[in-house]
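Lecture notes, unit on protein representations.

Consider one protein chain, 202 amino acids long.
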Amino acid sequence: AAGGGDAQHAHAQADGRDEPLAPDLRAAVAAGAQLVDARRQQGGGGAGVVLVRLGVLRGAPAVGALLMTSVLARHAISRRVGMRMFQAVIVFGLATVVFAVSHSIWLSIVALIVMGAADTVSMVIRISLVQLATPDEMRGRVGAVNFLFINASNQLGQFESGVTAALFGALPAAVLGGIGTIAIALLWMKLFPTLRDVEKLE
């Protein structure tokens, strides 16, 4: 996650402010162990049943993202956007922990839907802040670096999840990912109050 933090830090310095937007990338990396084990989660079943359940679980975050996008299209976040971003990251972490310990298919689906919705909120705010806070002459370069690390976060998350799962097991890996997401968000709120106190996207 250090690389993601450096990239976000670099973009924030473009307009002379020290406001890294690392929590959102850190959330994607720390909570990479979403789908712990479809068979363990949902009580076994044949291979076909397990694959169907896994497919539903894999699609649930996209459903949450789509629903939240529809909401944001009609009701834009108009105030306390910095705090809303951190709150969304924290909700993402909490939902990850709920999913990790759940043994109910329905609770697991709900948790993943919440994760997708929360991730959408944080991503919309972060991308908007990057565009609005960067000087015109640097926007292309900053956007390229930001895009690179956003797209690399999934691969970094998969690597981290695999290493953590190998060391501690799949369930502890997912729980630790969610807790790590929450801890980083709270730490960044403390270290970077200017980012936390951003009021509007303007």
